[in-house]
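## Example pair
The file below holds two records. Each record gives the amino-acid sequence first, followed by its structure token line.
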Amino acid sequence: MGTHLPLEPGSARTAAAVIPQQAIGVTVQFGVNFFPVVDPAKKSASDYFDEALRLVSLAEELGFEHAQCVEHYFSPYGGYLPDPVTFLTAAAARTSRIRIGTGAVIPAFTHPLKLAGKLAMLDNLSHGRLDVGFGRAFLPQEFEAFGIDIDESRARFAEGVEVCRRLWSEQDVVWEGSFQRFGPVTMLPEPVQKPHPPIFIASAMSPDSCAAAGRAGYHLQVVPSVTSREQLQSMLAGYREAWREAGHPGSPRIQIKYTCYVAEDRAKALDLAETFEVNYVEHMAGAVASWGRTRSDAYRGYEQFVEKVKKYDFRQSHADNKVLAGTPDEVREQIAVLVDWFGADPTLSLQFNPGHMPYEDSERAMRLFAEHVMPAFTGPEQAA
């Protein structure tokens, strides 16, 4: 799934809220993500990749924790990134410290032997900086093009994740599953990170999926704009509880994804935000139109996307903190509210170059964010 789905109303608490005391002096990590909702007539793929890779290098320079990208096909709604591994390989070659991640890859569309091998190779090329996010996909036309029954998506997803995990951490793997049978197979190259790269599960709306990820010891990627604030809080609470009850060592990693528009001038920031959020919604409307004729027990309620997209209201989305936009002070206040809602432990994964936004605006926003927003969330021990 993409960076955000600006559909559901959340709390009406606005960006102008006073910073909660519990959000002051906490440590929050920030990353960058790339989801190209781009009309090829407005920006070519080569230009988009050149600009995105420049932003990856800048993100490392400015101290962002990760850079990640999503997998989609065939349309301006993410179609520039059919293979995240290719983009992330180029990103890894340009950097040395920032973590790189899939947010997410789709096991249903790639044989797990191929997918596990590509990702293990990328972990080596990046010297152990890879985070692997897995997702189910949700667009009927993608499943149709690959000749895969959309009703099998959950089972294919679960099998694909488990096959990759075993291939990365075991030798002479024999697999007798519902969709794949092979073995014994020993994967080469082995991943650098042991027993395997960190695994993230992307979840849009399902508390059950979040809890299952916690029980399995997997990390989590969520998209807040597709849920209400209360629903997301419940999803995160269930995930954290499942992680603790399963007795997994350490702390889970949670990534929450937002678009982010920052400018010295508030009017410019909001104009950019409205322009490119509406661009996102318009292209999303085309991508989800197939839900008007598709029904699946694996995606209950998704047929409502078509009508929900038509009702999108940018001002309400901004007021509900589903998109970050404004001056550095205003965006800092929005993030403080998010910390109050969701805790300081999630990493906020931010998209600074949505749609065909001019590169100069994206770079300026990242620099303003790093200079004026990030320092407020470095924690007391680092700020001293």
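Second record, same layout:
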Amino acid sequence: MLYGVIGVLLLWYMFFILPTQWLKIERVHIPLGLNKKVLHLSDLHVERLRISPKKINRIIKREKPDIILFTGDFMERASSKSLLEPYSKILKQSAVPCYAVLGNKDYSVQPVEICINSLAENKIQVLRNEWIDLEDFVLVGIDDYCTNHHNVNLSFHHIPKEKPSIVMCHDPNLIEYMDQPFTLMVSGHLHGKQINIPFLFGAKFQGPLMNQGIYKALHIHKGRYLYISKGLGQSRYNIRFGVRSEVSVLNL
């Protein structure tokens, strides 16, 4: 009986807990001709996270990215600010320029400025329906689509047309409703399904991309590059099945 219980616990750990701790670094080449290395982070979910700040710090030091892009879902509760702080400080100490957009879970924080200010204090600039010129390319930050805080037209207002443009938004499904030209979109939100059991996600509508089998990795969609991260933390349940946590290194 005891051995049976131990066996069940070991199987549970191997299949459901280990994937949340066994961080995968996805290295992706996207031929934009920019000669830039981007570290893409997404879906921290500090309330349900088993990746330490030290591990992320080691990755940043080893990879030496030119820029860090974070595509939302940092925290869900105002009380989680203390959990977010060690990760924000790591990004600040790296001295790598870091930009972010908010995700749907961040808007659960009331007021949401608690999350925004915590990031700003550590030199992480949150873009909310706006763009900035980073010399080699234009970075566009579109606010969260799920909670209807996005404004695509405002995000692209008077954007330079002669440069490549990289779009950050939390939910990649937004790409289905965008007519504006851009080069690359980086997103998260879908967690690579997180619990990747066949037919499980068919029971609930997760957006048009999921229905097309687009929920992780690099795609060319409607003539534009789209990269979807599987995320660092977990949504709702602190488990994963068949999907490891991810940090993406995008060579542009």
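Notes on the second record: The helical segments are 2-21, 53-63, 81-94, 113-120, 152-155, 208-211. The chain has a mean pLDDT of 93.
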